[in-house]
UniProtKB/TrEMBL annotation:
InterPro entries: TMTC_O-mannosyltransferase (IPR052384). GO terms for biological process: protein O-linked glycosylation via mannose. It comes from the Eukaryota. One of its GO terms (cellular component) is endoplasmic reticulum membrane. GO terms for molecular function: mannosyltransferase activity. It comes from Heterotrigona itama. This is DUF1736 domain-containing protein.
Amino acid sequence: RAILTNPDLLSSTPWSRLLENDFWGTPLNDRGSHGSYRPLCVATFRLNHLLGGLEPWGYHLVNVALHAACTVLVVRVARKVLPGRNNLGHAITGFLFAAHPIHSEAVAGVVGRADLLACLLTLTAFLAYSAHCERTRSPFPLLLALVSSTLATLAKETGISSLALCLLWELCRGESSR
């Protein structure tokens, strides 16, 4: 339903409707609305639809690419949070993330894109925030963290947890620097 019958994917629908409707294309103020506000995810579905119509391979290709990008960022996060320079440990972390069966629904199911986008943007926010903590002269990493957190939340509601992740990093970093 998020793709096959969603009016927000059609080129005749104004882009602004993505901000007014839920994930399924129902107006948020409608009693039948699911209430899931994911305009960024719906925007990617719309781009898929504009480029390839309802052909499933394009939607699946984007999900696989997003999962691959998430895996790369998981390895980068592992390098940041795991002590030492144990490249094998970082590689194992990436492999486990990439191959773990819990991710199969998000990657294989097209509507799982919301989870993939939220993951990608949450990891980006964390990496940007941790970079901000290391070199505070440039405002760019902090700005990137804030934008990524906002976009993660617009991809899926759970993206708001990226702010909690950054706060947790700040608390842990503060403890280790004392």
